[in-house]
Design brief:
Length: 292
């Protein structure tokens, strides 16, 4: 097993890189978040870079966690790339939003198997200011990790996420592969495999996670997992960063099929060298009806 020493070294590398990253920040274009049941968060450092508070939701529907989606897309709306940084979101988006404010108040970060398949993939916060803000929110150092899979193709034996006991991991799987995954994770008490039925029901999985105490979940992809969450009415908020470049695999928006109904609450524009980058906080589906 890789274990704690490798994870400690990984955290040091990530924290050092985040602290050294040049962040130019955003300016506010529009803020209509008042009255939408959202909580503003941010310390002085974050509010200066974000030009105001970042808004989060603390509660979902009865018996369900509050789920937000976090995506970066090219200017053409494409989201699939071998290296997400090539989509052009920029360093501010990566460290302030994607690995930052969108996770500060989250009990867990959720991703599809493809997004979570890297051997050193761990979803957490890394910039020292964001780490401090998460601590001030009363959250553990690292959010729980949630992986959604329809197969047993996960790096259970060598992946950092799956070999670090201090990281609670929940694997959401369809019934046909749940037993195989339980066999592969036997003896690892920090990993729980959730049988979400056949076909896989994200609603059933979310109810199980809510019982486990996970009240706020940040979902980071991929697009098929995001689409499943949207179609089952489980997502209220979308944090979407749009770059100023053409990049990624063509025709790969964050959803598959019919686009969801969206309403924009907050819009920010990139500053300095990241001019042309745009961030939006949007409401999805039924949640958007209250502001239309």
């Amino acid at each position: 097993m890789i274990g704690a020493p490798a994870f400690a070294a990984y955290c040091t590398r990530k924290e050092t890189a985040a602290a050294a990253a040049p962040l130019t920040g955003f300016r506010t274009v529009r803020d209509c978040a008042s009255g939408q049941g959202l909580r503003p968060i941010g310390n002085g450092w974050a509010q200066e870079l974000f030009d105001g508070p970042f808004y989060v939701r603390d509660a979902g529907a009865a018996g369900l966690p509050a789920v937000s989606l976090v995506f970066v897309q090219s200017r053409d709306g494409d989201t699939v790339a071998d290296d997400p940084s090539t989509l052009g979101g920029g360093e501010t988006d990566k460290h302030l939003i994607y690995e930052g404010l969108s996770r500060v108040a989250a009990d867990a970060v959720l991703a599809g198997a493809s997004t979570a398949r890297g051997p050193e993939t761990v979803f957490s916060v890394w910039h020292p200011q964001v780490v401090a803000l998460r601590r001030d929110c009363g959250k553990p150092r690292h959010p729980a990790q949630i992986v959604v899979t329809s197969s047993a193709d996960l790096p259970i034996e060598e992946g950092l996420m799956f070999t670090t006991p201090e990281l609670p991991v929940f694997v959401i799987a369809r019934s046909g592969v749940a037993d195989a995954l339980r066999y592969r994770t036997r003896g690892r008490r920090w990993i729980e495999v959730i049988d979400a039925g056949e076909p896989l029901s994200m609603t059933a999985a979310m109810r199980h996670l809510h019982v486990r105490g996970l009240r706020v979940i940040s979902a980071v992809g991929g697009r098929r997992t995001a689409t499943s969450l949207i179609r089952e009415g489980l997502v209220s908020d979308l944090y979407l960063t749009t770059s100023a470049i053409t990049a990624g695999e063509p025709h790969t928006p964050f959803y598959v099929g019919e686009p969801p109904r969206l309403s924009s609450l907050l819009e920010k524009a990139g500053r300095g060298t990241e001019s042309g980058v745009r961030f939006e906080h949007l409401l999805i589906g039924s949640a958007s009806e209250s502001v239309l």
